# Entry
Amino acid sequence: MTGRNNKNLIKTILYKNHLRLGAKMVDYSGFCMPLQYTSSLIEHMAVRNTSGIFDVSHMGKFILKGKSSMEMIQYLTTNDLSKIKIGQAQYSCFINNYGGIIDDLVIYKISEEKFLLIVNAINIEKNKKWINYYINKNIFSNIELIDFSKEYSLLAIQGPMSLFYIQKLTNIILHKIPFYHFDIGEFSGVKKVLISCTGYTGSKGIEIYIPNKYAEKIWNSILEIEKIIPCGIASRNSLRLEMGYRLYGKDISEKITPIEAGLSWIIEFKKKFLAKGILQKQKKEGKHKQFTSFIIEEKGKIPREGYPLIDENEIIIGSVTSGIFSPILKKGIGLGYLDNKKKKPVFISIRKKKVPIKIVKLPFYKK
# Structure
């Protein structure tokens, strides 16, 4: 896609900037997004070694505010929001009545009665419908949901040198923002910018939230720092996979519970939440598929979505949900699920060839 066959796709405010930079544009969750500008390898290594910038404005951005807003979030998500203070963020997930993951999200605590929710682009309308369903049931009073996804842009500046390079653009001391915390200040002459120490790459960096009218100004001011290069969703995917971060629609979905997805650490059973009993039973009984992460030692073998995981008798015992060739490890790495009690598959089927795999703990990439 070069910009001619994308009339039905949603464009971020920086669409023309991406074209001018020579980006290859693709359909991603209904948005016209840059796949890469130079090569995914160059962009991947820039984020691991120096710094890169991503336009991730396609992400959904909600404000949920009101007297009962925290109580409502506590009920609809699995993590415990009471553990964080104003100025902090938390990774969590919305679940349905059966314990399946409606979406994974990051929640920012702006005040005691105001929260910023960052959700996946593909699930914006689904999440709005789910939240509004509970608002309309009047179980929780005095709550307002505001969707400002189309009005704000989101830029991610990631890499070990990123904070050093962009410090001159802001009055906030960036290295003093702890991981999963945020501050609000001036950035590139724009006031009241939310700057958070978060990201989807596993490298040091920040994400900034800005009104669309300032997005181009800030994007250009960052790229004027020549050591920061623009990066696309191809390198964002390989970077998140090296960390073992799940991707909605591939590694997690409404048919998968957070326990099955290896995300038990974001479940707080001490609080009341939707489908709590179902997840408690699943955890106790252990009768569920198992999330797995693995490396292929054999040179040139790369796992791909849908490839079967098999035992020594070539019986299918699972499948791959995400896989790439890791630029850092120089090996094929993958995520997937195994059938219940099949904890030690030793092969993956690649073009009908039985290839050994090594099951490892995440993350693949260790700083």
